[in-house]
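Subgroup meeting minutes
Present: P.N., E.W., G.H.
Scribe: E.W.

1. P.N. recapped why we're keeping a running log of single-chain structure predictions: easier to compare across weeks, and new members can see raw inputs and outputs side by side.
2. G.H. added today's entry (301 aa).
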Amino acid sequence: MKNIKLIPIVIAAVIFTGLIFGGCARDVVGSSPGSLPSAPSSVSEYSPATTTPSSAGPYATEIVPMTTAECGRCHVSIYNSIKTEGTKHQLECAKCHEQFHIYRPGKVEYDQILPQCAGCHQEPHGKEIIKCYECHAEVHTPAKITAGPIINESCVKCHNKERKQLKANPSKHTELDCFFCHSEHRYIPECMGCHESHTKEMVEADCHTCHPAHMPLQITYSADAPQTECSFCHKKAYDDLQARNTKHTALTCAKCHPRHRQIPQCESCHGKPHKAAIHKAYSQCGECHDIAHSLPIAEEN
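Output recorded in log:
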């Protein structure tokens, strides 16, 4: 009975031994007696993976200089400012910034790497104006000059003509700082922002017809300026001319008044049109003709 019980154990041992030796036999199939098993077909079958240079790797791309659009990905506000208001500074970034991203406090300072205006601009405003940043504080938008007390004195370095006009023709405008009217460079304010018009019919353009901004009390007008332009201030004279319809009505105001407030003598055009006795009796033309705009004939007392 004991031998019968051992039979299954023996059978299992035989099968297990056959499986082991059968696997070894497969490794040596086809090999000559005494030869070793063939090497694995790939290193990866038995050893850790190793990295080798490949044309498809992350460093395969040839490096080229950064484009302006690439700079704009980080410097968005500057990029947009140049895009909309950069004027002549709408250049490739590398045109001015030959070195960048090398700032190191205490070792490489900004003044060592930032481009200098003189590299492109050789004294564009003369030898006296050399501190570019006084006016062009934001170099990326050089034409956008924000006025203020700091640059008020700098204005006259370029706008000398206007300074001379203000000083030679004193007015309330002479007492003002430039930035009071010109809050930004090239900004021209409207006169009616401070001044009331002479009449409700006047528009902004009418102000400049007579009043140069930097010498407003020096009234100017062209020789062929129509009477209607003068009528804004001299309404009574205009109404008298239209009501009487004399030869004076057909003339321009500048014909008799080439300069503002100049009152001509009648004899400059008319000479002495009457007999000597009349001129002797009436030394002033206005004694009979009152004023030139209406020319009424005065009645004798």
